[in-house]
Amino acid sequence: MCSNKENILDQVTNGIKKDSGLSEAETNFEFKFSSQPTLENLSEELLDFCKQRNWQQYHTPRNLLLALVGEVGELSEIFQWKGEVPVGLGSSFNEKEREHLEQELSDVFIYLIRLSQACKVDLPKAVEAKIEHNKQKYPVEKCFGQSKKYHEYN
Ligand SMILES: Nc1ccn([C@H]2C[C@H](O)[C@@H](COP(=O)(O)OP(=O)(O)OP(=O)(O)O)O2)c(=O)n1
């Protein structure tokens, strides 16, 4: 390890290793989402899906929130009893389980988009603002390599 960048990477990796017991390969986050469809594309499609079925009457904020929580429960069941799972899932998930995971993550995302629509929250803008807020709350120089709650730092 000679450069500063390598040094930081090493510290991050070791930090993850120490907490999760996973190796460097198992904590490799290199991954990119597709650029299409956009959030706006999905948002429009979901609104159409709902209108075509005359389901606006059911897609109220409270109902959508309950549906979202239900889907989070279904997502959790997939991981239940598996113990720690590496980033990328490794050999912990077979093809069928991976497909199931894709479906449950999608259900959660779909209801999150619908709930945001029903609450008229501009989700990408809100997330961007929240990330900025998190940066202020968790400054790198205070939090580097530690995962404590913000009020536990001095
Ligand atoms: N009133 C509804 C019912 C369903 N959906 C959409 C959003 C979810 O993506 C999916 C949820 O469908 P199900 O309630 O059938 O749940 P699952 O797909 O999880 O099926 P199961 O409960 O059998 O696992 O369909 C919706 O928008 N509004």
From TrEMBL:
<keyword id="KW-0460">Magnesium</keyword>
<keyword id="KW-0479">Metal-binding</keyword>
<dbReference type="InterPro" id="IPR025984">
    <property type="entry name" value="DCTPP"/>
</dbReference>
<protein>
    <recommendedName>
        <fullName>dCTP pyrophosphatase 1</fullName>
        <ecNumber>3.6.1.12</ecNumber>
    </recommendedName>
</protein>
<dbReference type="InterPro" id="IPR052555">
    <property type="entry name" value="dCTP_Pyrophosphatase"/>
</dbReference>
<dbReference type="GO" id="GO:0000287">
    <property type="term" value="F:magnesium ion binding"/>
</dbReference>
<keyword id="KW-0378">Hydrolase</keyword>
<comment type="function">
    <text>Hydrolyzes deoxynucleoside triphosphates (dNTPs) to the corresponding nucleoside monophosphates. Has a strong preference for dCTP and its analogs including 5-iodo-dCTP and 5-methyl-dCTP for which it may even have a higher efficiency. May protect DNA or RNA against the incorporation of these genotoxic nucleotide analogs through their catabolism.</text>
</comment>
<comment type="subunit">
    <text>Homotetramer.</text>
</comment>
<dbReference type="GO" id="GO:0047840">
    <property type="term" value="F:dCTP diphosphatase activity"/>
</dbReference>
<dbReference type="GO" id="GO:0042262">
    <property type="term" value="P:DNA protection"/>
</dbReference>
<dbReference type="GO" id="GO:0006253">
    <property type="term" value="P:dCTP catabolic process"/>
</dbReference>
<dbReference type="Pfam" id="PF12643">
    <property type="entry name" value="MazG-like"/>
</dbReference>
<dbReference type="GO" id="GO:0005829">
    <property type="term" value="C:cytosol"/>
</dbReference>
<keyword id="KW-0963">Cytoplasm</keyword>
